């Protein structure tokens, strides 16, 4: 029995120990932290009343400087450590000179405390303190972030860990938070403008005369004909981002201590604004034990892709002197790095960035044939045909005659979708891609997590078959950088929410008519992924990645009355219009 | 004894192999989740058949957990017996399946068919009347409609109604040629949203001595008419020669194969009809070194002697520019441009003592912000 019984209490990121009541730092005494340096890494705050102060300052990451927004003086802001079954009062003080907000991402709270200005509440004015007091109804790993303008990109986010009221089904000797994010010296609005003006602005991995991409001339021509880029994996990339682990750049050496034989629980949170990460620990098997805060039957994997705003808890048993935790951006333009270290300073090799992936025919929504055809396609994908980075693509692209195909056959869209210049593509034959490990991970040669691996640990409480289906299309135009649901930006539908009756059980089908993966987040609820899990054990999530050209389905019980945000969690997609309000009627009433 | 990775009451569920979970989705093991003990036995017997090395799951220590891990390990590493993939074994043979890098590929097919089958029974319907109607207002009841008003407006503005302004100087160059050297600019700017924009355009050429040869400025309203094209209409005013104003109607956008197109039809206040079209194509040699061929053609329906324009093809210009993007917004370039006056225009030029064609070696800068 080599347990460290208290180690969970010493939950730490970046070697900063939890502080209950340390000497009061400057930010807590009041006043903005203007022009003072923002610390990297976070403290821990807990108790029944927690003060959070939003302020501005300068950040420096590996020698690069930029203005940032910090909460309690650090980026990420403090870890909120809560306890299921208790009540918590969160006092958010805004010392910025513009409005701010905090959204408790994944926590089930009354809608008016959910922290989305314009949907949940008016926002927190400069100088004002907003208090959110609510019962903590759940356990697990979550996070918080600003929902005002583009503040999240500037550093306004932090982790949440809720300890269960009873025993934790996951046993671990150490319990760490790994919050992945990104730093840029650019102002977030500058990034937004560059995206609007220059398609591919941040992408320095485009196809060129001198690239090494395994594309033949015909394939290159086909992409050109479609006016799309096979390398359009992430909009904002390592060309401006430094990827962060708990606020630290890869050269800054974030360490998590372990002793031989210990089991380490890592709560991986993707708190980035725009990045999908591929997470692995070379040499280790990671047991995925929770997704979006909800326990799942453990799945052993060697890599998993985590979309923006998702969380996964994993358990590993590190061996040797050190093991490297690698979180590679999905386009492989950079990585966040941390080390599981047996003693301070111990390091393992950091694997080089892998070759950037390419989008495929499947990402265009061009899977052919019926159900049987899909399966056939998967066999092809696995059998080593000459296509690189192929996911569920049925045929090598070179062999396809696409002459007669329209990439934008709008007759395939339901009448709920508004057709216009905001839609540059319609998935011709979208398929369920929840068995897909994510862009670039289909041929890595080891076991990668997919949504179909997730099975809820406990039986879900609503066994009803959904009474209706709601189909929502994710739409966009890469060239104009427009993003929307059903062809309508939020600015066009702000008075026309997605409506649910109270306690209604609905199957929602999200069809992705774009060539980018979108992490779609619904506030205030968990939904069950329709992933073929045993009856009653569909996994519950608050955010779901919809792969390009594919669809996902989830079952939602709309039992949290009020108005809720529903949006793509890629910050600049949301800001471009991929946002909606979901309105859940009051019990028994007409809203 | 704390030997398993998860507490004992969970072990049954833990031990359910992913493959079995997939099967149960087909109704073969409907109760696998509750009867963890049975699964565990099933698991153990299966583990006995497997040949996977325990080393494939170094993080797991207990015997029971080892079984669980071995099973997964075998799936990941391809030691699976053909019989264990009976559900998906098709003509391609089970070995191909087991050679896949992850068993999840099988699941995709299973989950897919299951969800599709179930979904077929779920009707696509609008929300029931109990879902209510009208705009979202739940927060008004808590904070008051007045308090919510501003933030609600800001939310709509921020999520989709963003206005942008841009200034693009595509060409600003010195042109070296036989006779007198010259200079050229080609710039445009816009302000507006995603679909509606006000454009300002200007192009001009001059001599090194400072004289303007040709120059005009255009104000246009542009509206997106397709994902890639804007239709534009407005007014053009010449800055050289006889004062002249035109109605300008045109299109601008990105054609298949990534050609940048711009075409305009001009009707002057004197009733003259002329047209111009230009096409450019960016060819990336490296991520920053870009070769840009471009071509431009000017046409006229009738002679316009006072402007030196002859009916038919007026001028043709082709160019090849090699630029280096120091940043996306800032790229110096070198290149060559060849221009020809044709037909009547050539005659007008010669009559004025000018050459009908010219070769320019150009050096310039492209920038935008």
Write a structural description.
The complex is a heterodimer of chains A (591) and B (369). With 591 residues, chain A is mostly beta strands. Among the domains of chain A are: 27-164, Immunoglobulin-like (Sandwich), CATH 2.60.40.420; 410-585, Immunoglobulin-like (Sandwich), CATH 2.60.40. Helices cover 8% and strands 33% of the residues of chain A. Chain A has six helices and 34 strands. In chain A, strands 23, 24, 25, 27, 29, 30 and 32 form a seven-stranded mixed sheet that branches. In chain A, strands 13-12-15-20-17-18 form a six-stranded mixed sheet, with no helix packed on it. A five-stranded mixed sheet of chain A has the order 2-6-11-10-8, with no helix packed on it. In chain A, strand 3 (49-61) and strand 4 form a beta hairpin. Chain A is globular, with a radius of gyration of 23 Å. The two termini of chain B are 66 Å apart. The radius of gyration of chain B is 35 Å and the shape is elongated. A twelve-stranded antiparallel barrel of chain B has the order 1-2-3-4-5-6-7-8-10-11-12-13.
Features:
heterodimer, A: 591 residues, mainly beta, Immunoglobulin-like, seven-stranded mixed sheet, six-stranded mixed sheet, 8% helix, disordered N terminus, B: 369 residues, alpha+beta, Porin
């Amino acid at each position: 029995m080599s347990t460290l019984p208290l180690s969970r209490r010493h939950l730490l990121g970046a070697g900063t120990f939890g502080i209950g009541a340390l000497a009061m730092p400057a930010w807590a005494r009041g006043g903005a932290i203007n022009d003072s340096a923002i610390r990297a890494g976070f403290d821990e705050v807990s108790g029944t009343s927690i003060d959070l102060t939003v302020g501005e300052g300068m950040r420096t990451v590996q020698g690069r400087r930029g203005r940032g927004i910090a909460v309690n003086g650090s980026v990420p802001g403090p870890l909120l450590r809560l306890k299921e079954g208790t009540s918590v009062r969160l006092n958010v003080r805004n010392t910025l000179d513009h409005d701010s907000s905090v959204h408790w991402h994944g926590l089930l709270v009354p809608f008016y405390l959910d922290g989305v200005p314009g949907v949940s509440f008016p926002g927190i004015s400069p100088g004002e303190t907003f208090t959110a007091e609510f019962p903590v109804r759940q356990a697990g790993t979550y996070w918080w972030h600003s929902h005002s303008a583009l503040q999240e990109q500037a550093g306004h986010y932090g982790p949440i860990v809720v300890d269960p009221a009873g025993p934790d089904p996951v046993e671990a000797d150490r319990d760490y938070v790994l919050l992945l994010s990104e730093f840029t010296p650019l102002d977030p609005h500058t990034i937004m403008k560059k995206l609007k003006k220059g398609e591919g602005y941040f992408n320095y991995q485009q196809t060129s005369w001198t690239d090494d991409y395994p594309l033949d001339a015909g394939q290159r021509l086909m992409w050109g004909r479609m006016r799309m880029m096979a390398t359009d994996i992430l909009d904002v990339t390592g060309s401006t981002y430094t990827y962060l682990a708990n606020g630290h750049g890869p050269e800054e050496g974030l360490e998590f201590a372990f002793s031989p034989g210990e089991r380490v629980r890592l709560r991986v949170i993707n708190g980035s604004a725009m990045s999908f990460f591929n997470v692995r620990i070379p040499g280790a098997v990671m047991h995925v034990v929770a997704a979006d805060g909800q326990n799942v039957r453990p799945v052993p994997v060697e890599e998993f892709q985590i979309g923006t705003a998702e969380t996964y808890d994993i358990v590993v048993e590190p061996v040797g002197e050190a093991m490297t935790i690698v979180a590679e951006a999905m386009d492989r333009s950079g990585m966040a790095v941390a080390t599981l270290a047996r003693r301070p300073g111990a390091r393992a090799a950091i694997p080089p960035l892998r070759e950037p992936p390419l989008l495929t025919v499947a990402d265009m929504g061009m899977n052919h044939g019926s159900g049987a055809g899909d399966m056939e396609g998967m066999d092809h994908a696995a059998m080593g045909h000459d296509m690189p980075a192929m996911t569920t693509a049925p045929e090598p692209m070179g062999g396809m005659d696409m002459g007669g195909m329209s990439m934008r056959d709008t007759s395939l869209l339901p009448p709920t979708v508004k057709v216009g210049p905001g839609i540059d593509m319609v998935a011709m034959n979208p398929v369920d891609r929840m068995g897909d490990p994510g862009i670039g991970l289909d041929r890595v040669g080891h076991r990668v997590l997919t949504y179909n691996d997730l099975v809820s640990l406990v039986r879900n409480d609503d066994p009803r078959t959904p009474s209706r289906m709601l189909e929502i299309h994710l739409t966009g135009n890469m060239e104009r950088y427009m993003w929307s649901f059903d062809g309508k930006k939020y600015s066009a539908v702000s008075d026309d929410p997605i409506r649910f009756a109270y306690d209604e059980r609905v199957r929602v089908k999200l069809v992705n008519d774009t060539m980018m993966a979108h992490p779609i987040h619904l506030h205030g609820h968990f939904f069950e992924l329709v992933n073929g899990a045993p009856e009653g054990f569909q996994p519950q999530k608050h955010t779901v990645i919809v792969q390009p050209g594919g669809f996902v389905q989830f079952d939602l019980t709309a039992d949290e009355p009020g108005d809720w945000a529903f949006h793509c969690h890629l910050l600049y997609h949301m800001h471009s219009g991929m946002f909606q309000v979901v309105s859940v009627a009051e019990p028994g009433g007409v809203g | 004894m704390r030997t398993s990775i998860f507490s004992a009451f969970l072990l049954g569920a833990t031990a359910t192999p992913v493959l079995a979970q997939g099967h149960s989705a087909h109704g073969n093991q409907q109760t696998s989740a509750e009867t963890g003990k049975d699964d565990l036995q099933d698991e153990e017997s299966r583990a006995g058949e497997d040949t996977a090395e325990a080393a494939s799951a170094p993080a797991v220590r207990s015997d029971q957990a080892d079984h669980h891990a071995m099973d997964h390990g075998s799936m990941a590493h391809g030691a699976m017996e053909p019989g264990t993939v009976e559900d998906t074994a098709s003509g391609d043979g089970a070995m191909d399946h087991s050679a896949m890098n992850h068993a999840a590929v099988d699941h995709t097919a299973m989950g897919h068919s299951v969800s599709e089958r179930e979904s077929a029974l779920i009707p696509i319907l609008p929300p029931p009347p109990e879902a209510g109607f009208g705009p979202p207002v739940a927060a008004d009841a808590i904070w008051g409609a007045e308090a919510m008003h501003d933030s609600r407006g800001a939310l709509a503005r921020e999520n989709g109604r963003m206005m942008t302004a841009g200034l693009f100087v595509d060409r600003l160059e010195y042109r070296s040629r036989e006779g007198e050297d010259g200079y050229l600019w080609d710039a445009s700017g816009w302000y507006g949203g995603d679909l509606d924009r006000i454009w300002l355009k200007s192009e001009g050429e001059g001599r090194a001595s400072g004289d303007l040869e040709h120059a005009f400025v255009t104000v246009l309203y542009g509206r997106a008419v397709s994902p890639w094209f804007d239709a534009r209409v407005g007014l053009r005013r010449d800055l050289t020669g006889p004062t002249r104003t035109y109605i300008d109607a045109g299109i601008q956008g990105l054609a298949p194969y990534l050609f940048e197109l711009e075409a305009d039809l001009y009707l002057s206040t004197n009733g003259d009809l002329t047209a111009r079209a230009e096409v450019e194509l960016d060819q990336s040699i490296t991520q920053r070194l870009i070769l840009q061929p471009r071509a431009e053609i000017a046409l006229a329906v009738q002679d316009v002697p006072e402007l030196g324009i002859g009916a038919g093809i007026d001028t043709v210009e082709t160019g090849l520019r090699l630029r280096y993007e120091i940043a996306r917004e800032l790229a110096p370039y070198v290149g060559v441009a060849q221009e020809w006056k044709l037909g009547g225009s050539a005659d007008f030029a010669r009559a004025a003592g000018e050459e009908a064609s010219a070769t320019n070696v150009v050096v310039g800068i492209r920038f935008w912000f």
